[in-house]
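Hey, can you fold this one?
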Amino acid sequence: GQFENEDWLVSPSFNADMFDDLKLTFWNTRGYVGPELKLYYSPDFVDNPATASWQEITNFDLHNGETFWQWTNSGLIDLSNLSGSDLRLAFKYTSTSDQAAT
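Sure. Predicted structure:
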């Protein structure tokens, strides 16, 4: 069944200033209809996603949910505009009592 839920997968901190051409790519899939996976970055995450400031990263490919569990590559996501010595990336998954994409 579906349940209202919010989950965060937060990366270890990294120094974006150490990279001239920072890129990210990842594989993703889903099996059911529901809210899309979101990708964010934060310069001030400590231990609670609710108290950090997050900026959404967009313009990448996500599985459309139309084909059951087919893996999709995000494509090459340009992060070269990020700066800071203590950044975190995070995936945010949400579901509702009506929809859970899994």
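The first strand starts at residue 5 and ends at 10. Let me know if you want another pass with a different chain boundary.
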